[in-house]
Amino acid sequence: MERSLLYKRRIVKHLYFSNMLSCADLSDKIHKSIPLTTKMLSKLMEEGTVTETGYAASTGGRRPVMYSLKEDVMYVVSVAMDQLVTQIAILDMQNRNVTNTELFELPLTKNPDAPTALAEKINEIILRSGIPKNKIAGIGIGMPGFVNSVKGINYTFLETEGVTISQYISTKVKLPVYIDNDSRLIALAELKFGAARQRKNALVINVGWGVGLGMILEGELFRGHDGFAGEFSHIPLFLNNKLCSCGKSGCLETETSLLVVIEKARNGLKGGKLSMLNEQELSANNPEKAFINIVAAAGKGDKFAVEILSEAGYNIGRGVAILIHLLNPEVVILSGRGSTAGKIWQAPIQQALNEHCIPRLSVNTEIEVSVLGYNAELTGAAALVMENYEREEIKNLIYENRMY
Amino acid sequence: MERSLLYKRRIVKHLYFSNMLSCADLSDKIHKSIPLTTKMLSKLMEEGTVTETGYAASTGGRRPVMYSLKEDVMYVVSVAMDQLVTQIAILDMQNRNVTNTELFELPLTKNPDAPTALAEKINEIILRSGIPKNKIAGIGIGMPGFVNSVKGINYTFLETEGVTISQYISTKVKLPVYIDNDSRLIALAELKFGAARQRKNALVINVGWGVGLGMILEGELFRGHDGFAGEFSHIPLFLNNKLCSCGKSGCLETETSLLVVIEKARNGLKGGKLSMLNEQELSANNPEKAFINIVAAAGKGDKFAVEILSEAGYNIGRGVAILIHLLNPEVVILSGRGSTAGKIWQAPIQQALNEHCIPRLSVNTEIEVSVLGYNAELTGAAALVMENYEREEIKNLIYENRMY
DNA sequence: TAACTTTTATTAAATAATTAAGAAGTTAAT
DNA sequence: ATTAACTTCTTAATTATTTAATAAAAGTTA
């Protein structure tokens, strides 16, 4: 059948992820010969999807022509949700915002209207952008909870009777929808555009209100049998009898979540600890601010702030030690919104690894702090759409799964 | 180039693992059309590698002809080592022993002659079998220690100066050699011939003197970046201050290894515990026997024996709970030599999961006991050879990695 | 600056692989 | 029994893809 359609989409996908590639690079990536790749590329240029972008430096011979996607051939709608706030952005093929990132409150707990509100907001933003829907490759959504990305189901939030949340949004917005767990999308972002690029085995810790985990195993985002892999924050690690939100006690989260950190800071101050922090800065009403203040104090060298952050970092490190024993990754990346604290945590985590890892395992594992930072989840949501891009039009191709 | 060579090897491989397949099955598995697969099959029949083995039952239409490997077209040398004893067997294409399994003592610690002794023993057994070397696909070896299967290196045992242990044996025996960690080979055996067959995500616990782990992730044996993945027995899980053989304290192994179980039994008896066991049966000189006696007593309902076994089982279960949170497997399989104790352990492990797992994760995970049992490692070693079979002659095929 | 090596690009010829159509064997229902 | 539905098998026609040969562009060397 029309296999060239598949190859073309594959080329588009690779150009999206790599930004600029030569014909030989692409031939390698799509596992097709150079003449065939050339043919596909010229078709794509005819169609106006791809442009030549000059020559790469010579490596000792003729310089290769480089190809890129035209930035306006397609767009992706990226959505990053947490339990209270949702962000939406529209990105072009260079991952650049074409509208400002919209931020609005959308509580997920006990809110049966959340799916409707989400769909309407997405529709509104697309409409306002003026981009025609046939120019949008799809909608990628990162959300908390137990998410099965393949089935498109969120088992924890965003209940929609009779249909999956993906189907629901998809029929309302009339575009393909892909969802996944927030931590996993952050890992995907790191794999495609961040510190895990070119790495085959990487673990990405999502430092946020909880401690999430996304795993890159053998070059692919790992999801597990039901799509629930990576429940790092609920591994039973402590005998502290502290009840966790999940109903069990002793979860990693009970000693490492940012809320616990703030709580400890507050108790410390009450107990008379010396610090440049004051109780007002740690107000329970604004945990976001409270955490930023603690990190800022630590950055300025406040001993007490460093101490409580280090304690949490050390405990995360104990968890990471387990991960390293089991999965032997090449690199562990601290990412997510709380990665601002990453630099402070690097030392205590390393300390925990020195104490709890077999040296042969820990010496080969780097600990890195993400450079993607705040935007990781939105980037990951876009990457999710483009990962699936070749599948969309190919569903009718019988031999799709027989080819690269 | 000669791609048909690759396809033929691929077919041979699949026939080895599945024993009997129709042309349509094979077409599916090698991702080639039916006419092409037919062509390859008839070539293989001409060469005398494959035979028709009658018809399969109809599924509502014409019955498919089934194909199998001739059992004597090729053989595999399987080696299963532990720190004291090494087993060697020669298997045919139906995984049947063609010689008796040879068992001999070969201590690995502080024994610089071990590699030489191993190579000589292998040579001797091949010679004695009368099988010509060109009929042997290769040698598969399972061994304890930190093993990098891809590089063919064992970092813990079997030191050979200047060359890897694989290269060493290979040049001495003049056959391709593949090695891997014992627990991982057991997992491979379960994947190809045991309880993990057709499963995409399975964890295989190797119950032996330690507690090993082999992971099947996305249908493949997972090895990690340096090949060290699966160090389950050394995850830091206890605050018991018991020193582990690895130098750290609190490792899972310090509460679950069979030696610890025997030790506890002995101490219990000394402390006056009521049991049908007596101290003589638990002699330190023969731990193998001691363990069998404990399991036997438990099987007969001895309360004390059940108690200490359950305790170890529960602690393994705590470790398994962590695995399930992180990897969300479809099934957890208790395998290896100690899997005789598996049935006794099923209950306490399940108990630990109920206490330490988020229900959504544990309810979807089955706990199974292996049926492969004692032979798992030898089977896995053979499977390792055949997994690599298609690569061996194809190394010169430029496009090898571009095709299925 | 010419000769040579290296890398990329283009084309035509050769081969590899699939599709499509029809024949043949089974089951099940009328 | 006969027919319909379905699966497997076989063959020829068609299409897809690669190989190999050549040209073109850069760098390297003497």
List the topology elements.
2 copies of one chain form a homodimer.
Chain A: H1 3-18, E1 21-22, H2 23-30, H3 34-46, E2 50-55, E3 65-69, E4 75-81, E5 85-91, E6 102-105, H4 114-129, E7 136-143, E8 147-148, E9 153-154, H5 165-173, E10 177-181, H6 182-193, E11 202-207, E12 211-217, E13 220-222, H7 253-256, H8 258-270, H9 287-299, H10 303-327, E14 331-335, H11 342-356, H12 359-362, E15 366-369, H13 376-387, H14 389-392
Parallel strand pairs in A: 4-7, 7-10, 11-14, 14-15
Antiparallel strand pairs in A: 1-3, 2-3, 4-5, 5-6, 8-9, 11-12, 12-13
Chain A binds a DNA duplex (30 and 30 nucleotides) through residues 1, 3-4, 22-24, 32-36, 38, 58-65, 399.
What can you tell me about this protein's structure?
The structure is a homodimer of 404-residue chains. Chain A has 404 residues and is α/β, with parallel strands linked by helices. Chain A folds into three domains: 68 residues, Winged helix-like DNA-binding domain superfamily/Winged helix DNA-binding domain (Arc Repressor Mutant, subunit A), CATH 1.10.10; 126 residues, Nucleotidyltransferase, domain 5 (2-Layer Sandwich); 176 residues, Nucleotidyltransferase, domain 5 (2-Layer Sandwich), CATH 3.30.420.40. Chain A contains 14 helices and 15 strands. In chain A, strands 6-5-4-7-10 form a five-stranded mixed beta sheet, with helices on both faces. Chain A has a five-stranded mixed beta sheet with strand order 13-12-11-14-15, with helices on both faces. Chain A has a three-stranded antiparallel beta sheet with strand order 1-3-2. In chain A, a hairpin with a 3-residue loop joins strand 11 and strand 12. In chain A, helix 2 packs across helix 3, helix 8 packs across helix 9 and helix 8 packs antiparallel against helix 10. The longest helix of chain A has 25 residues. In chain A, 50% of the residues are buried. Chains A and B meet through strand 12 and helix 10 of A and strand 12 and helix 10 of B. Chain A binds a DNA duplex (30 and 30 nucleotides) through helix 3.
